[in-house]
Amino acid sequence: MTSYWNDFPGMPEALEKVSGIINSSSASENPVIFGGLSAILNGDGKLLRPGLLVIASQFGSALKYNSEKCYHLAAAIEMLHVATLIHDDVIDDSPLRRGQPSVHTRYGKQNAVLMGDFLLSRCFILVSEYSSQEQALALARAVSVICSMEIEQNSDRYQADTSVRRYFKKIMGKTALLFSLACYVGAAEAKAPAASAARLRRAGYNMGMAFQIIDDILDYAGTAETVRKALGNDFKEGIVTLPLICALKMDRSGELKKLTVPGQFALADRGQVIALVRESGGIEAARNCAKKYTDRALREISLLPGGAPRDMLEKLTQRLLVRDY
Question: Which of 1, 20, 253, 282 has its Cβ near the most Cβ atoms within 10 Å?
Answer without folding.
Answer: 282
